[in-house]
Amino acid sequence: MEWIEPCPLKVNLCLGVGHLQADGYHEVETLFWRLPSPEILTIREINVNNVRDRIFRSGDPFAGEHLVRRALDLLRRHGAVLPPLEIGCSKVVPAGGGVGGGSGNAAALIRWARRYGFASLLPEETGELGSDVPFLADGAPLAWGGGRGERLLPLSPGVQAKGFLVFPRWVSCTAEAYGRLDALREACGLSQELPDREEGERILSDLRERRVVGLLPNDFVSVSESLHGEYREAWALAEWAGALAWGLCGSGSGWFVVLDPRADATSLGQVLGRLSWVRRLVAWEG
């Protein structure tokens, strides 16, 4: 038997980072938005005795242990009786882009296990794999997230839009981004106030009514701009194109543009594709 599972991505329509907690993690408040992804998982049963799981990937490389392996181990620890599996992961989105690429791969496996009755994990359990996994495994198009991302409040309806995910030639390490944010706040006396759900609701209302929001609030923007001035060029291009909204993907390095679904995205796509510092461009619509 073979199953094909789509792997979701996410962007943050707002992202606030609080104090470092005793457990070594920062509290966050964020508005998650699920986007379609070109990545898929191919899952097959291995009908041979004494054979271990096989996990392989094609496309863009990644470093370290893949989250799909950890998700498989997590499912079995929580009682899933799974046969040996061969799992192929078709990678398109660069690692370190801030869109939850690896998290979406893991979430696809968790949703597959839930759909076919192998196991149904709680958000605090899937959160062991990363802050984006609970949302991506949940299936809601939008959700307000708190804690480390495991406290979720699904929101509806969704937003009809299209746009681009833009991945530069540099990557962002999440742990390093948090460390730089802490250092910047200490040096400059920046506030650590978290956004509230009302701010997220205002952003959603504007996008649903196709009103311009502009640069979306994200505490990591100041860190990213201090390292790479190209982000300011990115925001100017999005504004020039008449975009509804634009912003940083999570803690970076990717960024995204939200367009009216009726807009012609051809000119913006051509301009973005010619930028020397852009590594990959992914168009989306939903």
Automatic annotation (TrEMBL):
<dbReference type="GO" id="GO:0016114">
    <property type="term" value="P:terpenoid biosynthetic process"/>
</dbReference>
<keyword id="KW-0418">Kinase</keyword>
<keyword id="KW-0547">Nucleotide-binding</keyword>
<feature type="active site">
    <location>
        <position position="132"/>
    </location>
</feature>
<keyword id="KW-0067">ATP-binding</keyword>
<dbReference type="GO" id="GO:0019288">
    <property type="term" value="P:isopentenyl diphosphate biosynthetic process, methylerythritol 4-phosphate pathway"/>
</dbReference>
<dbReference type="Pfam" id="PF00288">
    <property type="entry name" value="GHMP_kinases_N"/>
</dbReference>
<comment type="pathway">
    <text>Isoprenoid biosynthesis; isopentenyl diphosphate biosynthesis via DXP pathway; isopentenyl diphosphate from 1-deoxy-D-xylulose 5-phosphate: step 3/6.</text>
</comment>
<dbReference type="InterPro" id="IPR036554">
    <property type="entry name" value="GHMP_kinase_C_sf"/>
</dbReference>
<feature type="domain" description="GHMP kinase N-terminal">
    <location>
        <begin position="67"/>
        <end position="131"/>
    </location>
</feature>
<comment type="function">
    <text>Catalyzes the phosphorylation of the position 2 hydroxy group of 4-diphosphocytidyl-2C-methyl-D-erythritol.</text>
</comment>
<dbReference type="InterPro" id="IPR004424">
    <property type="entry name" value="IspE"/>
</dbReference>
<dbReference type="GO" id="GO:0005524">
    <property type="term" value="F:ATP binding"/>
</dbReference>
<protein>
    <recommendedName>
        <fullName>4-diphosphocytidyl-2-C-methyl-D-erythritol kinase</fullName>
        <ecNumber>2.7.1.148</ecNumber>
    </recommendedName>
</protein>
<dbReference type="InterPro" id="IPR006204">
    <property type="entry name" value="GHMP_kinase_N_dom"/>
</dbReference>
<feature type="active site">
    <location>
        <position position="10"/>
    </location>
</feature>
<comment type="similarity">
    <text>Belongs to the GHMP kinase family. IspE subfamily.</text>
</comment>
<keyword id="KW-0808">Transferase</keyword>
<dbReference type="InterPro" id="IPR020568">
    <property type="entry name" value="Ribosomal_Su5_D2-typ_SF"/>
</dbReference>
<feature type="binding site">
    <location>
        <begin position="94"/>
        <end position="104"/>
    </location>
    <ligand>
        <name>ATP</name>
    </ligand>
</feature>
<keyword id="KW-0414">Isoprene biosynthesis</keyword>
<dbReference type="InterPro" id="IPR014721">
    <property type="entry name" value="Ribsml_uS5_D2-typ_fold_subgr"/>
</dbReference>
<dbReference type="GO" id="GO:0050515">
    <property type="term" value="F:4-(cytidine 5'-diphospho)-2-C-methyl-D-erythritol kinase activity"/>
</dbReference>
